[in-house]
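Hi C.,

You asked whether I'd gotten around to modeling the 128-residue construct. I have! Everything is below, sequence then structure, no commentary in between.
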Amino acid sequence: MGRCRKPARCIRRRSHRTLGAEHTATLTIRNNLGAALQRGGRAAEAEALFRAVLEARIRILGHEHADTLSTVHNLATALQAQGKHQEAEALLRTVLEARLRILGNRHPDTLATLHNLAAALQDQGQVV
């Protein structure tokens, strides 16, 4: 096996080749790559990747599957990092409503969404 200078991208390519572009494991790898890009300050690239993953996850898993909601949440944080606060807010409100209904108000994912929604509102100068 040859050396790979960007392991995350190599794993994504291998998963795509082996499992297929829309296999849930491949989508998870792509979602995680988006998160890594965002942590590395590449929010615009992360946004594009999250949008592609989201489209596939909605089609395959549905709007309210936990993985789909995680991708919407990640997309919102990528938008927020780029100063697209209103779009991020709208997505976070959608995720929060679903997570409250499905997971309840004490689940860590619900609380993370609530936290990020508060940050999006604060970034827009709204009192939280």
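If it helps when you're writing up: The two ends are 53 Å apart (CA to CA).

Thanks,
B.
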